[in-house]
Amino acid sequence: MMRFTPRSSRILIVSMLWVSAWAECVFGQAGHPELIPETMARSHGLTRAWATRLQVDPGRGRIKEITLHEGTLISVTDQGTVQALDAESGRTLWITPIGKPGHPCTAVGASASYVAVCNGSTLFVLGRMDGKILFTRRMQGSPSAAPAVSEDRVYIPTFAGAVESYEINLVEPKLWPTTYRTRGTIEEAPVLAGENVIWATHVGAVYSATTKDLTAVYRFMTRGEITAGLGYWPPLVYVASADGYVYAIDEKSGKRRWQFSTGSPSREAPVALDGNLYTISEISGMYCLSAEKGAERWFTGNVSKFISASATRLYTADETGRLMILDRRSGAHLDRLSTELLPIKVVNIQTDRIYLATKKGLVQCLREIERVTPLVHALPPDPNLAPAPAAAARQPAATAEAPAADEGAPAEDPFGSVSQP
Hints:
Elements lengths: L5 H22 L10 H5 L3 E8 L9 E7 L2 E6 L3 E6 L5 E6 L11 E2 L3 E6 L2 E6 L5 E6 L9 E2 L3 E5 L4 E6 L10 E4 L9 E3 L2 E5 L4 E6 L5 E6 L9 E3 L2 E5 L4 E6 L5 E6 L9 E3 L2 E5 L4 E6 L5 E6 L3 E5 L3 E5 L5 E5 L5 E5 L6 E2 L8 E4 L4 E7 L20 H6 L22 E3 L2
């Protein structure tokens, strides 16, 4: 029988404490292996701002998507639960069940006043502040991606290649949508760009129509599928295509400003931020380009997703799901953090916060240790705001431009069709 002396007991206790600390670094807090320990975060210059658990059915429910919109994180589960969190504190703002559990749900779209989400073929519009369901509509088609939402309309893409536009009118609601029909499935949410709504289809076409009544404005053609979302920074819309190019087109005319070859298909949405455009090639890695001119500033390999940016760092993910920390000026790899157990990594182009989550609903926010208040990135100017009278007098009147001849738009009806029952 083994006998313990006071000395051996002390050694055993110290050893147990060391093993416990090591286990916390490797596996996180007890019962939560996905929770990044504070000791590990600090070793990478980060700290955990908060962590919380979303309302998810532990037996069947899973988080489908988490979207960040102007200081609010909004999640959707595959059981039809929509939950809003304060992005800075993690506090739950509201929880709203929608539709039928098990029916496919889209991610949410949001504006200052409204949140829109589809469950099956039903559109739900909720109040942004309280989550109250304001109205529902049975769609004509099947939604293929998240809606785009303004203060007066919702635009929903469908698998048939149409965009259905529903007016947000709580006094005299209209039952039937305005519909714009195009070729190819729309796999990502449309982008609201000034007075136009713009989207892409998997056949390589980018379409633009007016936000008011979906009147055709232009069509821009690439030579490959478009499965990534569009990037936007006024006055340019950025398109990543499977033909190996990233295109910058004028939001009003559809004229190509520049194109850049990444050498392989691009299936992640380009991210425009503070004069830079970050675009990811499927095979090689991330390029940093001039957002205005398309000139290459740097390239770095082994990056598959943009997450967020601080003043000096870029936070990205590699193909295995690890958090990759890059130098923002040069793209050099600075550090990496094990986040493979956190498959949901929210794209944040609004602040420097890092939002990570599991499918079962554990959400955590990381920040740089010294950044107690968030670094808010400069927002693009509102294209709907008219210039000052003195400045407007000095500028020539704007003229409409036709799409460039080499962009491949055929002469016959390049815009599809618009119908309004």
